[in-house]
Amino acid sequence: MKHLYNKLINFFNSVRNNIAFYPTLLAALGFNFAFLMIYLEERGISTYLLETVPVLVVDNGNTAMTLLSSFITGLISMMVFSFSMVMVLLNQASSNYSPRLLPGLISDKNHQFILGIYLFTILYCIFILFSIQPTGDKYQVPGFAVLLSILFTVVCICAFIYFIHNISHNIQINNILDQIFHLAEKRLSRLIEAEDGGDKDFPDTSGWYGYHSEKTGYFQNVALNSIIDICKKEETKIEILPVKGIFVLQRIPLFKSEKELDEETVKEILSNFNFARGELVADNYALAFKQITEIIVKAMSPGINDPGTALNGIDYLTELFALRMKKRDQSIIAKDENVYVKVATVNFAELMYNVLASIRVYCKHDIILIQKLSTMFIYLKSQEAIHSFYYDVIKNEAKILLEDAYESIENKSDLKVIERLARKLDIKTEKFKIDNLPLTHGINK
Asked: What residue intervals traverse the membrane (predicted)?
């Protein structure tokens, strides 16, 4: 039963971010609500309202049919336009910023609910239209159901106005960066709060039993509470090998166990792993660093050439790195003072190197961006870190950046700026002399 429950949870997690998930649910709700109203009409709800509150009931068959037909036609046109606008948004975000942004934009619940409201109203109006008997007899017209269709159409118009506002808001790069940042901040904060076993030791796992997955895909999430329950039951410890967000291949070890496990237990453990063909920042904070880095790189590419966006992206990276400095490089999950699970994580040095290595290629020739990145390093060095070696990582990345900038920039005034930045960061390098920077560097004699 628990195995089936985990499968259902994994299936729900895989489909809930699909753009058609909520529209499908609301369309089914509209279909069923239409038949509920037809049932109530047969029980005489319109007749009762016509006698008590006649202003709420449409009692003319031709008028009702005309209204419903107009609603259906207009709402279908409105839905097609809205869906086309979503496609334009996704295409523009993919071409101007990064294709990795698409899963997050598609999973926007506001767009899904608006499309669902359209489908709900369209299906409701269609089936209410079918229930009208074209005899002109007012008692055969579902007057109250027609009134509800008018109200639902007004709601659709309001939803359309909100949709235009929302889509014009979401396409702005500042709002995209802000959304990525807040999702990553929320995820990182939860992980930091959950690090109750980070200061405990975990046994050496070199001789443990390894088990692999039959599935492939991006390792999206794992139900740690269920894994801990299994560890308690089997009196074992487990190490989860792949880092979240990595693409897991078949026959590659997925986890190790201190004790050898039977086939049924292995299947139960595997059911707690969730794989997907896409990645979401809400499940993997490291993806936020990747997405913001790609936006910066794309902005500084010759085809886009938008340094303002790159500067904004560096601001958000600075805040995320400052928060990441509060997280340990290893995740050890403990419960009741006992250590049960070790989860592989992206360490701070690897994360910062991957981000800065991509940015250096496109930004090392721009002194303004070099200054911005150096300001980021200066700020991070002043922040509290859970490990002291994080400061060494920051200093090393700053040194590499300034060395690359020194080799790429030829203007002597800009080189003096690099000299001052190196002094502020307390960087000494053989690449250039801090105290006596040659003014003839890069100048053709």
From this structure: 20-40, 71-93, 113-132, 144-164
**Alpha-carbon Rg of the chain, whole angstroms?**
30
| Whole-angstrom distance, CA of residue 368 vs CA of residue 414 | 9
Number of domains in the chain: 2
C-alpha 420/C-alpha 49 separation (Å) is 82
The answer as to whether 440 is a domain residue is no
Q: What are phi and psi of 367, to 5 degrees?
A: -65, -30
At 239, phi and psi to the nearest 5? -115, 125
Alpha carbons 75 and 84: distance in angstroms, whole number: 14
Is 300 a domain residue?
Answer: yes
pLDDT tens by residue, 38-51: 888 888 777 777 77
Paired residues of 328 in beta bridges = none
End residue of a domain, out of 171, 196, 216: 171
pLDDT at 316 over 80: yes
Inside any domain, residue 364: yes
The answer as to whether 443 is a domain residue is no
Claim to verify: residue 309 and residue 167 sit in the same structural domain: no
**410: domain range?**
286-326+347-424
Q: How far apart are CA 287 and CA 289, in angstroms?
A: 5
Structure-token match 């595997």, residue found: 270
> What b/e readout covers 242-260, taking b as 16+ CB neighbours within 10 angstroms?
bebbbebeeeeebbbbbee
